[in-house]
Specification:
The protein is of the alpha/beta class. It folds into two domains: 19-147, no CATH class; 169-265, no CATH class. The protein is built from eight helices and seven strands. It has helices spanning 19-35, 41-55, 76-88, 95-105, 109-120, 132-147, 244-249, 252-260; strands at residues 169-174, 181-185, 191-193, 208-213, 216-224, 229-235, 264-265. Strands 1, 2, 3, 4, 5, 6 and 7 form a seven-stranded mixed beta sheet that branches. A hairpin with a 6-residue loop joins strand 1 and strand 2. Helix 3 packs across helix 6. The chain is globular, with a radius of gyration of 18 Å.
Amino acid sequence: MTGAPPAHAPAFPLRLPAPALVFERRARRLETLAARGEGDPFLAFLGRLAAAQGEALGAAAGGPVDPARLPEDPALPGVLAALLRALRRGTALPGPAEAAVRGLGDASPAAIARIGSSLLGAGPGPSEVAAAPFVGAALQVLATARAAALDPAAPPRDEHGCPACGAPPVAGVIRGDDRLRVLTCALCASEWHLPRIRCASCDATAGLAYHHLEHDRGARAETCAACESYLKLFDLQERPGAEPLADDAATLALDLLLGEAGYGRGGLNLLVAAA
């Protein structure tokens, strides 16, 4: 007879990504949100970018997932080139996007690495803004493909970030059945459980508050008075079908509200970091 699981077993173990499903689901959700009018052309373009990410997975070679070193990874330029080829198939890109894609086609590996490092660090500079979403998308493809091959039982990489790669979350969901808070990695799309009423950035359990726009109770932000950061949480009971990156991109008005109140993002969205 099988015994009960040990008392220390996590309620929700680390869930490594299934890369093709990650980008397929993300693209569908962005298309759905765009059709509802929550950003229209912007979200539709991000949906197209997510679909291109799925097509570029074949260019992602095996290797470790290390956010600090990923921008210099020799495989990144090839992944980016495959992504841009997939993106340019079909209808013409918007003018600014087409110009950025052409520029990246001529960019050196060192220039691509600089943009990637900026995205994972202090944020892209003015001259990098147009290219940033495409390099961020390529970083996600590379990290997601590699994270899929990791051992989910290995010790966590980072106490406050993704257990698989150490990167910060993009956002989280509150599940509809057991009400667990599950965070999604901004870089490799791994998922992990973080107990509620605990800051995802500094572990504080006091001074937390919740904010939402008047018309959308399903998209909330948890703010922390200790570190003055916030993380978005999407309640699947109130916002069925939410996908953390897609729904984060569709709720930038909430970011504006919290920025005006003096809070900084505790998460990271590599496709809208420039925004």
